[in-house]
Specification:
- The protein has helices at about 15-25, 30-40, 40-45, 60-70, 70-100, 115-145, 195.
- The protein has about 210 residues and is mainly alpha-helical.
- Among the domains are: about 1-50, no CATH class; about 55-145.
- The N and C termini lie far apart (about 115 Å).
- Residues about 185-200 have low confidence and may be disordered.
């Protein structure tokens, strides 16, 4: 395997990653990318891929419209047009990431922190970002057009014309306690020996 592309302990003009790699003897991200490009050159010659990024989204109209917006409805119009413009591209990116994760079935029985699972998570988060933006826009519209009623504060009066509800008064039932010296109903007291109580047991008649 090729060594990192700098001399050990030569920190002049090196990044923090390169300096750390010189001490640990590991490859940097640039090393890995350089080796990958070298070993995939013949493959890319047989399967050429676009070398330039697709036309970028022009943010000018969205920035101008947002600066002129004065109401939540106008801000929502900018948000929804932006989401509609980028959704097809983001959706295709998500699908391609899933296909990469499933290459040769590597995603089956893979660990949660493995590259296939990381790619699956990245594919999901691509669409999650747009879904979260749409959810925020809908919540802003709900706060504007359909706000939830505020809960009544304790002790506040009811609205005019609406009678207050009173709970019916029920007389409190008092329980009569048993006379002193007698055990309460439902409880058992230990039997007192007759010799200590001074009572004479009654014998049944013959």
């Amino acid at each position: 395997m090729d060594r990192p592309d700098f001399e050990p302990y030569d920190n002049v003009g090196r990044t923090a990653e390169q300096i750390a790699a010189s001490y640990t003897g590991t490859a940097t991200r640039d090393d890995l990318r350089r080796w990958s490009r070298r070993d995939s050159k013949e493959f890319l010659a047989q399967h050429p891929l676009p070398g330039t990024p697709p036309p970028a989204l022009d943010p000018g109209p969205y920035i101008a419209a947002l600066a002129a917006a004065r109401t939540p409805a106008e801000v929502s119009a900018v948000t929804q047009h932006l989401l509609d413009a980028v959704f097809p591209t983001v959706r295709e990116v998500s699908h391609l990431l899933v296909d990469i994760a499933r290459w040769e079935g590597r995603h089956r029985s893979a660990a949660p922190d493995s590259p296939p699972k990381m790619l699956m998570t990245a594919a999901s988060r691509c669409l999650d970002a747009l879904a979260l933006a749409d959810q925020a826009d809908i919540r802003a519209l709900r706060d504007e057009y359909d706000p939830s009623p505020k809960p009544p504060q304790p002790g506040t009066e009811s609205a005019p014309g609406v009678p207050r509800l009173h709970r019916p008064h029920r007389p409190r039932q008092h329980r009569t306690a048993p006379p002193r010296g007698l055990p309460r109903e439902g409880r058992r007291t230990p039997a007192q020996p007759l010799a200590q109580s001074g009572e004479v047991p009654c014998t049944p008649p013959p």
